[in-house]
Write a structure and sequence with these properties.
single chain; 396 residues; alpha/beta; Aspartate Aminotransferase, domain 1; Aspartate Aminotransferase, domain 2; 2 domains; 7-stranded mixed β-sheet; 3-stranded antiparallel β-sheet; 13 helices; 14 strands; 41% helix; 14% strand; globular; binds glutamic acid
Length: 396
């Protein structure tokens, strides 16, 4: 008896696999500092917790919600998109899902026929390629390097388009690089696809963790509303990873496709989590801004500490909570008799030797790099960087 080819051929999520490995070490009593999972170390703000408790006490939210999400939540999302993102959206354009990951899966299944190509701005979040392939599409990567803050360009996009191109996908602020596309860069990207039958999938889940002060939504650019799927959610900006609330705002025909897909796979996401999300959206952004301020301070700290490690090359990210340094200087070096051949080996070595978990850049499309999440306390970050430095110094 065999699993399907579909599952056998699918990559395991590298972020979740590394997090599981770190948990396993911790369960053995090993003091692991986990910088692998992109997860705020803050607790969900109190008023959002209270919103969920109130919803339970009211006793009105125990039945199946509409598949696309409660109407008042979708109205609040549409209002937020108008207010903060200059996106003209209505409840009929919105589908609330079990995390932005399910939102992206819905979109891929709703849009792709076998062989359709999706151009992926690389480095890219690990699940994009897996979900495209699961939907029998073909990911086509266009790659930015560290010298360009890892940003692939509109020219590269234009060169990668073929008659099979159905969509493009990027995240800004970017997971794993922390880069933020400027308005000019997004306008140049929009110029390339505006007159073509190509959908833009804009993953804006890190919109609040942006140190440039300017978050630009693709759907707000002239002519792009009818061909953009905006992906967002509550996990990062509101420290709500476990609540699993993501959403899309999309042209109605795509939203309808996602609704149909979700209706067969999971139905609506958790009723109480949706009420918590509504509280998050209808309260002020004070706690979100406080958290962003903390990430901003930690970014400066980690940058200085990384600069101090010989052979590690880094740029200065402008959003999210990741560094994506190039560690290729260490490839070919040895620990005892074991050769470090690549970023996978280096991550394993750092986990075993320094007890710090990172994620290999290979999973994100750049095998010379590793991803460091700095959504951790200042003490943990200082200790982790010192342990990494010491472990790397032992390689020869
Ligand atoms: N998006 C987060 C990360 O990249 C959460 C883990 C995941 O779902 O991949 O670490």
């Amino acid at each position: 008896m065999n699993l399907s080819d579909r599952i056998n051929n699918m990559e395991e999520s590298a972020t979740l696999a590394m997090a599981a490995k770190a948990r396993e070490f911790k369960s053995q009593g090993i003091d692991v500092i986990s910088l692998s999972l992109g997860e705020p170390d803050f607790k969900t703000p109190k008023h959002i917790q209270e919103g969920a408790k109130k919803a339970i006490d009211e006793g009105k939210y125990f039945a199946y919600p509409p598949v696309a999400g409660y109407m008042d939540l979708r109205e609040a999302i549409a209002a937020k998109l108008k207010r903060e993102n200059n996106i003209d959206s209505k409840p009929e354009n919105i589908v609330v899902s079990n995390g932005a990951k399910q939102s992206i899966a819905n979109v891929m299944f709703a849009l792709l026929n076998p062989g359709d190509e999706v151009i992926v701005f690389s480095p890219f979040w690990v699940s994009y390629s897996a979900l495209i392939q699961l939907a029998e599409g073909t990911p086509v990567f266009i790659k930015g390097g560290i010298e360009n803050d890892f940003k692939a360009t509109a020219e590269q996009l234009a060169a990668a388009i073929t008659p099979r191109t159905k969509a493009i996908i990027y995240s800004s602020p970017c997971n794993p690089t922390g880069s933020v596309f400027t308005r000019e860069e997004l306008e140049a990207i929009a110029d390339v696809i505006r007159d073509k039958d190509i959908i833009a999938i804009a993953d804006e889940i890190y919109e609040h963790i942006n140190f440039t002060g300017d978050h630009v939504s693709m759907a707000s650019l002239p002519g792009m509303l009818d061909k953009t799927v905006t992906v967002n959610g509550f996990a990062k900006g509101f420290a709500m990873t476990g609540w699993r609330v993501g959403y899309i705002s999309a042209p109605k025909w795509i939203a309808d496709g996602c609704n149909k897909m979700q209706g067969q796979v999971t139905s609506a996401n958790c009723s109480i989590a949706q009420r918590a999300a509504l509280t998050a959206l209808t309260s002020d952004l004070g706690p979100t801004k406080e958290m962003t301020k903390a990430y901003h301070e930690r970014r400066a700290l980690v940058y200085d500490l990384l600069k101090d490690i010989p052979g590690v090359k880094t740029n200065m990210p402008t959003g999210a909570f990741y560094f994506f340094p190039d560690v290729s200087e260490y490839f070919g070096k040895k620990s005892d008799d074991k050769v470090i051949n690549n970023a996978d080996d280096l991550c394993l070595y750092i986990l075993e030797e320094a007890h710090v978990s990172l994620v290999t850049g290979d999973a994100f499309g750049d095998p010379n790099c590793v991803r460091i999440s700095y959504a951790a306390s200042v003490e943990e970050l200082k200790e982790a960087m010192s342990r990494i430095k010491s472990a790397l110094s032992k390689l020869s």
